[in-house]
Every structure is written in structure tokens, then in C-alpha cells.
């Protein structure tokens, strides 16, 4: 995966004018705004704001800021500001930078809306907005086919999850009787006992797991690396993938505590964490390796959200922040390396420490945090992870084991990504001779890495500002908050930490043989990514196949399908509604009636059976005259006159046009068509008989009969209806005839001389 | 007579559908005329049949006296006949034009828009 040509242009700091600066200012302002809410939220208050949106549907733009929301909002806007600053240099002079900045800002704002929403529907709207904007971001290098494919894959997977999520939200709204999230969270016990609990949980988890790329939906996330590196930094550290985690955390007070919740989150989280850290070690592309470690982090976060204990919640809150800081820093570092050397291959890179000292130090600090060395925040995060894992009541060994293995692998990956490229000797000439990145690209990694170190030295600042309020949001009580300590004495977590270091350093030392072993093992496993391609190919083949079968291009097939559908519709109606008792009565039929019916039937039969045009046209005329006679006999002289006039015109037209057409071939008998025609004819007769057996609603007729003379001064009621009461209909009818005449004229005019 | 007419309409409809499915445009037009007649008769019959009493208000009277045929379906059928004629006139010109341009009356042979060899 090589960087697009436009990315390798020489970086010029702040090279995109106001388009580049404005989003940075906006994001920084948002960050400052959220930071100003810190004291109030840390003191335990929950800030709310709301406005009516669609009052008739009970929808409102309700916003809630508590510890959990604020932590996410600060990460999103803070990292967003740094990433936007970084991108402005990274993509300096890119012809579509304005578009990029718009996408990234829109994505950031959607993400903020998502974490602040206090209404299920509002939450869903922002959820989908993040899906769409991340699609645009992943596919930003749209000239590359892989880019388009991977963007579409991310869109399909997360949008499919989004549909399940919507269904889950609707069920949840029904079960709770409100869409206000804070109200829903208050009735957790009622929800857990509700009959819809399981469907709600399954659907919401489907949404969260696709968004947060848990096994088996993990395959789209590493592919999303097709995006420019700053996007990866943003999507993977603070946002997109954390949306699912946020949802799980948000719903934790209402839905957690059941066996299903515990086991689903614990098992999938543990499997994702271990599986992803193995995959991460297998990668040689630095960006890909980091992408898989994101999966590992998401798995760990999911694992902790499965639990109830205060340790697990504190571990969740701390690791959330730790991961966002070091992951964003490392992605930005990889972007710097890529920019400076033109490659991201771990096996090529080396000796960059001298050329890029500041980058190297930032990378080292972030990597130490990632690897969990003291005194960095990552160490505290790791200690808490072990404490949280050991506090899992049901399976402490399993959970702690999963965390241990993934942490040790993480240490090895941290070494590969952030240590080796800088400090080992170069193994060969690099595509470009490296130099230090400009300040705008350094500020992100440096600030983020420094924060990781500072919070490690002064954990109580972080504790008071963010961790404690988040844990309170999750558990509802400050009593469950565990303390963040650099030195907690010699205890089980410390022993596990020491084990991690030993194991991790061993993994790092032997990572190359390990990588080949993993490569060999994983290449034998079926690849979900290839499966995805097969799935899409199969879908397209299915579409082509059903188009071939259904859309034959033969008019008779289409007509057959149309008539068969009408038949099925009528039959289904009869089946569902039942028929009233049919008043079949032929006793009143006189010989005139019988003769009329015979005339119509004979005309129709002759039209069908005749192979001669003239005979068929004459037989049609018989049907027309028969119809006119029915009208005369049953008191409709005006209708009869019209029918006769039209019959005359039909004959004229037929004489002009039809007789210039070729003679008819004899029609062979078509059994399927005959069966359908008979069935539909019989059904029509049956329906008509049913109509005739039901009482007639004469209200309209009575009105016209009563009003015809007093209101319209007409004695012929039919005429009065046509030209007075329903005059507009008649006008429409005239318009139809005029249009038909004009169209016919237009068709005939161009007839001469262009027969092909 | 209503029962008799309902059965007749069923037969007309069946004949019309059989003709329309024939795969020949001339027979399709015949079916179209037949099905128009069947539809008009259906509307007419659904308003019930009253023999020999047109809905006319006698000279000097303000409303109808005695039973008379249902005026409403008659008005509807009148409109339907005229519109049906418009449809028929346009259809027949279209068929005529198709014949002069394409030289066939079999719609299955008209593959200008969907050439058979273009199918996968």
C-alpha cells in the first residue's frame, strides 16, 4: 500500500490557506468549550440542554453532558484539532484539501453529536452521519480502486449494523416508553426483566460490534487504512470505532448485569483482543500493525464493559484515554515516517533516530505508554486492567490470561512500530533520505505523547477530571471509583505486569521468527476479507441471474406475470375476506336477456377463434353492438348512443390502419395462457357476483336524483352529472382524448420514408 | 339478468386476456377492445340493472318519480367509453407505426432496446 502521489509533495507548513486553518480553530474552540465544562461535571453535575425538533413525534434535540460524554467529547475535539493541524501540513497543496477538511470536520461534529445526544433517534441520526462521513474519508483517495472498495466495505458492514441498531433502538424505545436516554437508563431493572430484552440486546450489540469491529466483523477496520494517515489516526484513536464502545458504555447502566451481556461481551472482547494482537505482530506495514492493535484495544474495552465491578469500570475509563492518546500519537508518527522516507515497511526502515530526533522521542514516549512501562499512563492503565480482570467474578483466570497475552503482544508491536525504525541500523537505502517533520506535524505526536507521560506522573489530575466522572456515569455511584496510582504496592497486578514485560520483551526479541510462524498459520485460515469479496460477487451473480430469469425481455412473459399477480391478489382477497352468500338467480331472465348474453359470448368467441382479420373485426363489432344493446335495454340510452358512435369510429380507424397490417397467422392453442385467462375470468365473475349480492349504497345516486333539477335545472340526470356536478372530470376526459389524438398524429406524421 | 351478465363479463374478460397474451400486437388490440367492453359492463352491472327506465325527470316534476336506472354508473361508463376509445386510437396508431418502422407485429421480435446478444 503506497501513498498516493499527491501525498508525497514537499510539505509546506499551513499550506492550504484559511481552508486549512479554520477547521483547526473550530476544533480547538470546541475543545476549549468542553474543557470549560470540566469543573462542573467533575463536581458531579450533569449538564442538559434541549430544543424541540419534531414535537408532534415527541422528538427533541436533547443534549446531555456527563462524565462519559465529556471524556469522549474532549478526546474527539482535542485529537480532532491536532489531527486537523497535522493534515493541513501532511496534505499541503492537495488539490482537494477543502473537501478533505470538510469531511473530517463533518465527521468530528457527527461524532460529538453522537456522544452528546440524549435521545435515541438523535443518537441514531448522528450514528449514521458518522458512517457516511467515514465512508467519504476512507474513500478520499478515490482514484485508487482499493480505496473505493475498502470504503464501500466499511460502509456496508457498518450500515448493515446500523440497520440492526435502529431496530434495536426502536424496540428499546417501545420497551421503555420513551426515547430519552437519561430516562431509559433510570429504568434498567424493568428493562432487564422485559420480554424484549434479548432482541434489544442482540440488535444493539450487532450495531456496536460492527461499528467497533469486533470479531467476526473485524475485517473492515484494517482495510480502512486506505484513508490518508491523519484520518486513520482520528478514526482509530478517538472516534469512529469508539462509537460502538461509547454505545456499550452508554447502555451499560440499563442493560448490563445479565448473563447474556456478561458472556457475549467478555468472550467476543477477549477473542478480539488476542486474535487482533496476533494479527498485529504479523504485519510488516507499520500502519497495518497499528490498525490491528486498535482492534486489540477495542476488544479489551468491550471485555471490561462486560463486567460490573468498579475496578473494571475504572480500567475501562483509564484505558480508553490511554489508548486514544498513544494511538493517535503513533499514527501521526507513522505518517511523519511515511512522509519523510516514502515507506512504511518495518523491514526497510532503520536509523531514523538521528535524522528525526523529535519524532523519535515522541514515538518512544507514546510507545512506552502503549507497552505499559512506568511511569507512563499506560502503566497505570495496565495495572488497572489486571486489577479489573482479576475482579471478574466468574472467570478471572481466563480474562486475566487474555489481557496478559494481548498486553505482551502489544509491547512487542510497540517495539516494532516505534522503536526499531528509529534505533536499529538501516538495512538498506530508503526511498527518500529522511529529515525532521515540520512543527505542525510534530505538535500532535509531541503533545499527545507528553500528555501520556504527564498523566502517568500525576494520575490524580486525570482521575479527578475525567476518570472518576466517567465511572460515576457507568456505575451511578462515586463509591465504585478506584484510585489511579503509579505505585500500588506489591500485589497481583504488579506480578502480572512483570510477567508481561518478560513475555513482551521475549516476543519482541523473537518477533521475526514469530511473524513467519504466524504468517504460515494464518494463511491457512479462511480469510474473511476474501470471503467478503466472494459474498459481493455472489450477490452480483444472484442479481444477474434473477434479472435473466425475471426480466426476460418478452412482453408476453411480463403480461402473464401481471395477470397472474392480479389473479393472486383477487384470490388472496377472497380467501382472506371470505365471500358473502351469492345471490345466483337466473329466474328473471327473459329470452331478450339470454339472446344478449349469447350475442356477447358469440362475438367474444369468434374474436378469439378467428384467424381472419376481417372476421375478428366483425366479431369485435358484434361485442360492441351487444354492449350497446345491454345499455339500451337497461335504461341507459345516452351510454348506448356513445357506445354506438365509438363503435363506428373504431370501424373507421380499423379500416384505415389495421387492414394495412399483415394478415394474422393462425393462433396455436396455448394451454398455460388459456388456464390463466379462464381462472382470471372466473374470478372476475365471482367478484362481480359477490358485489351484486351485497347491498347497494345509493347515497350518491339519491343526491344526484334530488339535486339535478333544483340545483342544475337539468332533467337528464346522467347529462347533469357529466356537464355540471362532475364537469371537471369531463374536461379531463376531453383533454385525454385530445392528447391521444395529438400523439397519434405525431406518430403518423413521421411514418413516411424511415422504415428501417 | 344480473347473474347472467356477471357470468358473461367473466367470459369476456377471459377471452380478452387470452387474446392479449397471444404475442401478436393485432390480437393484443382485439383483447384491449374486449377488456374495455367488459370493464364498462362491470361498472354498469355493479350499479344494478333496471329495465326500461332511464333516469330522466319528467316534465313539470322536481325529482324522479318511481324507479329509474342508477344514473351514477351510467355517467362513469360514459366517461370510460370515451377514454377507452382514446386509448384504442392511440394504441392502434402505435401498432401501425411499429409495423411500418420495425416490420413485425411480434413484440418478442422487437429487440431494439434489449438486443438478445447483449445478455450475459
TrEMBL record, chain A:
Domain MrpA C-terminal/MbhD: 598-662
One Pfam family matching this protein: Proton_antipo_M
InterPro entries xrefs: CPA3_Na-H_Antiporter_A (IPR050616), MrpA_C/MbhD (IPR025383), MrpA_C/MbhE (IPR046806), ND/Mrp_TM (IPR001750), Proton_antipo_N (IPR001516)
Membrane topology: Multi-pass membrane protein
Domain MrpA C-terminal/MbhE: 672-750
Transmembrane stretches, start-end: 21-47, 59-85, 97-115, 121-140, 152-176, 196-221, 261-282, 289-306, 312-337, 358-377, 397-419, 439-458, 486-510, 558-579, 591-608, 615-634, 640-661, 673-694, 730-748
Primary location group: membrane
Keywords linked to the UniProt accession: Antiport, Cell membrane, Ion transport, Membrane, Transmembrane, Transmembrane helix, Transport
Subcellular location as annotated: Cell membrane; Membrane
Occurrences of domain NADH-Ubiquinone oxidoreductase (complex I) chain 5 N-terminal (ranges): 56-100
Function: NDH-1 shuttles electrons from NADH, via FMN and iron-sulfur (Fe-S) centers, to quinones in the respiratory chain. The immediate electron acceptor for the enzyme in this species is believed to be ubiquinone. Couples the redox reaction to proton translocation (for every two electrons transferred, four hydrogen ions are translocated across the cytoplasmic membrane), and thus conserves the redox energy in a proton gradient.
Protein name, entry field: Multicomponent Na+:H+ antiporter subunit A
Taxonomic lineage from the root: Bacteria, Pseudomonadati, Pseudomonadota, Alphaproteobacteria, Rhodobacterales
TrEMBL record, chain B:
UniProtKB keywords: Cell membrane, Membrane, Transmembrane, Transmembrane helix
InterPro entries in UniProt: CPA3_antiporter_subunitC, NUOK/Mnh_C1-like
Pfam families named in the record: Oxidored_q2
Gene3D superfamilies found in the cross-reference section: 1.10.287.3510
Topological relation to the membrane, as annotated: Multi-pass membrane protein
Membrane-traversing stretches: 25-46, 75-99
Compartment list: Cell membrane
Tree of life domain: Bacteria
Record-stated family: Belongs to the CPA3 antiporters (TC 2.A.63) subunit C family.
Name assigned to this protein: Multicomponent Na+:H+ antiporter subunit C
Species this chain originates from: Rhodovulum iodosum
Amino acid at each position: 500500500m503506497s501513498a498516493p502521489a499527491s501525498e508525497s509533495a514537499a510539505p509546506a507548513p499551513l499550506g492550504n490557506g484559511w481552508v486549512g486553518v479554520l477547521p483547526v480553530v473550530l476544533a480547538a474552540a470546541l475543545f476549549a468549550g468542553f474543557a470549560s465544562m470540566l469543573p462542573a461535571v467533575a463536581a458531579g453535575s450533569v449538564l442538559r440542554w434541549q430544543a424541540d425538533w419534531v414535537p408532534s413525534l415527541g422528538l427533541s434535540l436533547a443534549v446531555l453532558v456527563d462524565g462519559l460524554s465529556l471524556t469522549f467529547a474532549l478526546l474527539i475535539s482535542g485529537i480532532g484539532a491536532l489531527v486537523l493541524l497535522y493534515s493541513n501540513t501532511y496534505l499541503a497543496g492537495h488539490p482537494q484539501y477543502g473537501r478533505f477538511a470538510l469531511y473530517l470536520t463533518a465527521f468530528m461534529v457527527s461524532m460529538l453529536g453522537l456522544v452528546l445526544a440524549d435521545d435515541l433517534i438523535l443518537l441514531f441520526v448522528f450514528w449514521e452521519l458518522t458512517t457516511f462521513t467515514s465512508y467519504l474519508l476512507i474513500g478520499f483517495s478515490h482514484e485508487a480502486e482499493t480505496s473505493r472498495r475498502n470504503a464501500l466495505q466499511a460502509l456496508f458492514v457498518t450500515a448493515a449494523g446500523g440497520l440492526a441498531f435502529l431496530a434495536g433502538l426502536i424496540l428499546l424505545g417501545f420497551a421503555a416508553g420513551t426515547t430519552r436516554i437519561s430516562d431509559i437508563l433510570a429504568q434498567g431493572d424493568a428493562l432487564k426483566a422485559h420480554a424484549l430484552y434479548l432482541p434489544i440486546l442482540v440488535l444493539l450489540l450487532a450495531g456496536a460490534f460492527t461499528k467497533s469491529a469486533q470479531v467476526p466483523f473485524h475485517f473492515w477496520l484494517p482495510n480502512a487504512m486506505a484513508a490518508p494517515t491523519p484520518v486513520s489516526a482520528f478514526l482509530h484513536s478517538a472516534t469512529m470505532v469508539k462509537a460502538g464502545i461509547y454505545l456499550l458504555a452508554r447502555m451499560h447502566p440499563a442493560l448490563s448485569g445479565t448473563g447474556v451481556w456478561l458472556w457475549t461481551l467478555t468472550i467476543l472482547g477477549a477473542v478480539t483482543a488476542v486474535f487482533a494482537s496476533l494479527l498485529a505482530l504479523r504485519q510488516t506495514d507499520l500502519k497495518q500493525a497499528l490498525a490491528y492493535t486498535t482492534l486489540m484495544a477495542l476488544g479489551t474495552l468491550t471485555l471490561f464493559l462486560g463486567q460490573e465491578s468498579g475496578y473494571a469500570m475504572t480500567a475501562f475509563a483509564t484505558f480508553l484515554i490511554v489508548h486514544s492518546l498513544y494511538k493517535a500519537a503513533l499514527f501521526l508518527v507513522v505518517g511523519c515516517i511515511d512522509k519523510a522516507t516514502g515507506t512504511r515497511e518495518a523491514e526497510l526502515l532503520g536509523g531514523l533516530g538521528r535524522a528525526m530526533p523529535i519524532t523519535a522521542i515522541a514515538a518512544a514516549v507514546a510507545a512506552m505508554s502503549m507497552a505499559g512501562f512506568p511511569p507512563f499512563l499506560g502503566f497505570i492503565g495496565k495495572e488497572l486492567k489486571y486489577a479489573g480482570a482479576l475482579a471478574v467474578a466468574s472467570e478471572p483466570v481466563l480474562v486475566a490470561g487474555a489481557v496478559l497475552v494481548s498486553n505482551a503482544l502489544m509491547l512487542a508491536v510497540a517495539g516494532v512500530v516505534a522503536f526499531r525504525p528509529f534505533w536499529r541500523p538501516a538495512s538498506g537505502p530508503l526511498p527518500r533520505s529522511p529529515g525532521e517533520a515540520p512543527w505542525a506535524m510534530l505538535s500532535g505526536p509531541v503533545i499527545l505523547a507528553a500528555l501520556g507521560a504527564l498523566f502517568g506522573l500525576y494520575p490524580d489530575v486525570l482521575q479527578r477530571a475525567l476518570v472518576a466522572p466517567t465511572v460515576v456515569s457507568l456505575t451511578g455511584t462515586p463509591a465504585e471509583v478506584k484510585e489511579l496510582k503509579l505505585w500500588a504496592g506489591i500485589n497481583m497486578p504488579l506480578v502480572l505486569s512483570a510477567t508481561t514485560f518478560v513475555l513482551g520483551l521475549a516476543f519482541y526479541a523473537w518477533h521475526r521468527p514469530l511473524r513467519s510462524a504466524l504468517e504460515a498459520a494464518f494463511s491457512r485460515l479462511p480469510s474473511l476479507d476474501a470471503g467478503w469479496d466472494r459474498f459481493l460477487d455472489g450477490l452480483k451473480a444472484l442479481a444477474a441471474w434473477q434479472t435473466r430469469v425475471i426480466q426476460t425481455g418478452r412482453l408476453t412473459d411480463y403480461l402473464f406475470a401481471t395477470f397472474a399477480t392480479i389473479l393472486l391478489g383477487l384470490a388472496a382477497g377472497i380467501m382472506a375476506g371470505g365471500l358473502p352468500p351469492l345471490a345466483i338467480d337466473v329466474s328473471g331472465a327473459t329470452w331478450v336477456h339470454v339472446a344478449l348474453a349469447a350475442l356477447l359470448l358469440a362475438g367474444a368467441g369468434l374474436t378469439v377463434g378467428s384467424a381472419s382479420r376481417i372476421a375478428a373485426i366483425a366479431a369485435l363489432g358484434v361485442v360492441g353492438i351487444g354492449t350497446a344493446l345491454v345499455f339500451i335495454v337497461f335504461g341507459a340510452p345516452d351510454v348506448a348512443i356513445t357506445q354506438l358512435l365509438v363503435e363506428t369510429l373504431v370501424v373507421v380507424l380499423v379500416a384505415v390502419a389495421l387492414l394495412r397490417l399483415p394478415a394474422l397467422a393462425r393462433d396455436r392453442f396455448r394451454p398455460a395462457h388459456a388456464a390463466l385467462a379462464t381462472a382470471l375470468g372466473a374470478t372476475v365473475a365471482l367478484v362481480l357476483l359477490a358485489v351484486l349480492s351485497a347491498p347497494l349504497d345509493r347515497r350518491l345516486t339519491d343526491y344526484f336524483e334530488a339535486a339535478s333539477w333544483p340545483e342544475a335545472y337539468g332533467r337528464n340526470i346522467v347529462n347533469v352529472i357529466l356537464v355540471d356536478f362532475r364537469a371537471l372530470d369531463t374536461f379531463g376526459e376531453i383533454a385525454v382524448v385530445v392528447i391521444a389524438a395529438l400523439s397519434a398524429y405525431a406518430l403518423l406524421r413521421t411514418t413516411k420514408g424511415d422504415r428501417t | 339478468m344480473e347473474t347472467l351478465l356477471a357470468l358473461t363479463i367473466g367470459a369476456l374478460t377471459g377471452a380478452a386476456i387470452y387474446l392479449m397474451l397471444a404475442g401478436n400486437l393485432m390480437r393484443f388490440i382485439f383483447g384491449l377492445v374486449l377488456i374495455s367492453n367488459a370493464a364498462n359492463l362491470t361498472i354498469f352491472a355493479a350499479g344494478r340493472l333496471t329495465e326500461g327506465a332511464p333516469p330522466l325527470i319528467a316534465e313539470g316534476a322536481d325529482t324522479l318519480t318511481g324507479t329509474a336506472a342508477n344514473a351514477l354508473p351510467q355517467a362513469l361508463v360514459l366517461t370510460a367509453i370515451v377514454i377507452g376509445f382514446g386509448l384504442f386510437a392511440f394504441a392502434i396508431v402505435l401498432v401501425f407505426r411499429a409495423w411500418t418502422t420495425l416490420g413485425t407485429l411480434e413484440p418478442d421480435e422487437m429487440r431494439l432496446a434489449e438486443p438478445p446478444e447483449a445478455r450475459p
